[in-house]
Write a structure and sequence with these properties.
The chain contains ten helices and seven strands. By secondary structure, the protein is an alpha/beta fold. Helix 1 links the parallel strand 1 (26-31) and strand 2. Helix 1 (36-48) packs parallel to helix 7. It is elongated.
Length: 275
Amino acid sequence: MVQPVSPSVAPHADTPEPLRGGFTSTRFVLVEPSHPGNVGAAARALKTMGFSRLVLVAPRVAQVQNDPEAIAMASGADDVLAGAHVVPTLADALAGVQWSLALTARTREYGPLPRAPREAASDAGRQVRHGDIALVFGNERTGLSNEHVERCSALAHIPANPAYSSLNLAQAVQVLAYELRLAYLDQPASAPDAVAPDMGATPLAASEDIERMFVHLENALIALEFLDPANPKKLMSRLRRMFSRSGLEREEVNIVRGIAKHILLLKGRGDGDVR
C-alpha cells in the first residue's frame, strides 16, 4: 500500500478557515480516472486549497472512495474523498453548471482557445458570481476527448517543461486549485461561503441548456439541408467554438432555440421542440 506523505507545511492553528468566494460553488470533475491513488491525492489537493466538491465520471475502479490506496493518498482528506459524487457521464457532472473549464495538454483544432492557469482562474473568479462552475480533468492516459472539450466553456493548458511535460492528475488538480484559491481570496467577500452575485447581470445559460440548444440547432440545420448528417465535417465543432467565445446568456440560448423551432415547424418536422 502506498503510504501517505507527511505534510511539508504544518498549519498554524486548528481552527478551520472560513470558506470565501467561490470555494463552495466550484466542482472539480475527474473524467474516467484510472488509479485510486490519484483520486485520493486529488481529494487531498482540493482540501489543502479549501475546496471540497469532487465529482468522478465513470471511475475505472468501482467504489473508488473506499479503495485502500485512495484513502491512503487522501492523507486526511477522507471527508472530501468520501463525499465525492459519482456520475456516469460528463453531462451529468456538469448539470446545473454555468461555466466550465477543461484542462488539456493537447493542441485542439477546434474548441475554446487555451488559457494559462492564472488567466483561467481569473475568468473563473468572474464566472462564479453567476452560479456553479466546474473544472474538468481527463483520464491519466488519454486525457479529455474532443467531445468532452466541446462541452466545456473554456480551455486551460499548464505550460510545463516542453522536454518533460507529463503531469500527474493530482498535480494538475493542485495547480488549478492553487490558482483558483488565489483568485477567490483576492475578491472582496460579502458572504462567508459565496461570491455575491452581480444583480445587474443577465443570468448565464446552464450547461445542459446549451447542449439542448446545440441539438436543436443541429436538427434545424439538417432540416434546411445545410448540414449533411452523413458528412457533417466540422460544422458543429466550429459552431461550438464560435458560441463558446460569447459566454451564452439564458435569453440568448432561448433565442437560438426559438429560431431552430420555427425552422423545424416550417419544414414540417413535428412541433419543433427538442427536449
